[in-house]
Design a protein that fits this description.
Structural class: alpha+beta
Strand content: 25-35%
Distance between the termini: 72 Å
């Protein structure tokens, strides 16, 4: 079972303007990602809570390591990402994006989990100019060159190719 990131905010709610810091490192398994793209390395959480008249703002950062494959050459990749957090917690949420305060406590776990999952790159590249694989022979073009003729024209573009050849250069 997950160890929730529950913070007691009863003192914050009594006096608007009061602040509280939360700095901790938690195991990835405690967040129950169910996501293979987050590594097993610890997740760092560094937050600043501030009481408002209508709730508590939570600002700070969280860091985790993601793992994946290059979308072109399938090389394994991993990187440490740091995500900026800025969220609002309210006892009676009047903002559709606000999290609820329950029994004078806030649960930071859903907020940290959501922000980390949204920050994972969907289609990472090992480098910007990664050539990927040859569409003809399947060789990894970042490892070796191939002698395939990649000038094969898709027949759906044939009409445009003939039109291109009939146009004269305006210069």
């Amino acid at each position: 079972m997950a160890t929730p990131l529950i913070v007691n905010v009863v003192e914050l709610l009594r006096w608007p303007g009061t602040t509280k810091g939360v700095v901790l490192s938690i195991a990835s398994a405690d967040l129950e990602f169910g996501e293979s793209r987050i590594s097993d390395e610890p997740i760092d959480v560094n937050l600043h809570l501030e009481a408002l008249s209508n709730g508590v703002t939570v600002n700070g950062t969280t860091s985790a390591t993601w793992v994946g494959e290059c979308r072109r050459c399938l090389a394994p990749m991993s990187d440490r990402m740091t995500v900026e957090l800025s969220e609002l917690y309210q006892q009676i949420p009047d903002d559709s994006e606000a999290y609820a305060i329950n029994n004078d406590q806030i649960n930071l776990l859903p907020m940290v989990r959501e922000n980390l999952l949204l920050a994972i790159p969907l289609g990472p590249l090992c480098r910007e100019d990664c050539p990927g694989f040859c569409p003809q022979c399947g060789k990894d073009l970042s490892q070796t060159a191939c002698s395939c003729d990649n000038s094969v024209v898709d027949p759906r573009w044939a009409a445009l190719e003939t039109l291109k050849g009939s146009l004269k250069d305006p210069s």
